[in-house]
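Sample intake sheet
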Amino acid sequence: MKNILILIIVFLSVHSLKGQVLKVEFKDFDKYKGKEVLVAKRQGDEKFYSVDTLFGVGTILMLEPGLYSLVNSGRIIGDFVLFDSPITLSFTDSSLVYKDPYNEAFISDNSKWMELIAGGERESIPQIFKVAFPQMVRIDSADMSTRKIHSKYWSFPSLNWDFIVNSPFFNEMFDYYFDKLQFNSSDSIESSIDLLMSKVPGKYRRQLEYKILSKYENHKVVGFENVFVHVGLEYLQHEIPLDTTDYKIIGKARSLSVNMVGSIANNFTIKGLDKEDFELHKTEGIIKILFFFDPDCHHCQEAWPDLVSFCDANIDKGLAGFAISLSENEDELLEFIADNGISKNLTVAFPGSGSVDTFRSKYFIPSTPAIYVLSSGNKVLARNLSVKDLEPYMRISGF
């Protein structure tokens, strides 16, 4: 057959090697004789990186399981998926011809297997699809408990983790799991992470930890930073070895662990403007707003009018505002209030002379202004909100 490229790819079971041996043999390679053909690893739809160059007969490569492209002169001339068994691929002028069920399923005949998946016919579905798209395989009614669903979801890649972490499927599975299969609760997510970590082989844990940490470090959902703390302190902190970036992540997790959402806010006693002791846990309010600020802070000055308006508007609902100055200078604080105004529903306190203790080491205040929302019992309901976030947060919370 004219211009036929036959690739015979054979896996050798060499347990001492990290990857698997991939032998590539070319026959009837007239079309690409003397030309470079790159073997590129696929990471996602548009990310490629070259792993080797093929020039002709007898090339032996070390490749990990995953999805690969053959590239010539910047043009993709064919894709193949490397799973866990030998495959034979024939290359024509227009396409690759597969005699391998995994490649046929994933590349050549997606619609056929998608229909089987949609119909729940799992027994006839090639393993490649079970690994790549487990979320599309129906779950039996007997497995509808949350823990069983989550356990079942991650049972597929355990059959071949080498494949899943070295292919675009890993990101897809990860995103679907954390975006679609989770309750909107940090406690639920942390429990799911613990279950997942119990299934992930040790050599892949850190890769998964980094992805979770990245996803939840600056998450918009209130309280989801707790997930970042959980993974940083319960998992990454115990990895060996740790590098400079790891120590920075762990340090941030420790800082965030102070007064996390759901915990009881640390008590402190400083001075009110009336010279009396201001003790947080003795304050009253169905909802308490702690506004940590610095009189010299430009952002604090900009946010102050909205804070005053918000406290005034909610005085009859049991909300109480507390503006806590980071400055120990009473004159500076009085000048700030004179310039910017005050609400009768806003108590001002500062760490002035005679204060029993300070809040500085007890609260995570990366910048000012910093806002904490507490319940009447001083439970942290939210933090890291802006003043403009307060009204919609309260409305959503049913306040």
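Comment: DSSP finds 13 helices and 16 strands in the chain. The chain has three domains: 5-107, 113-255, 269-396.
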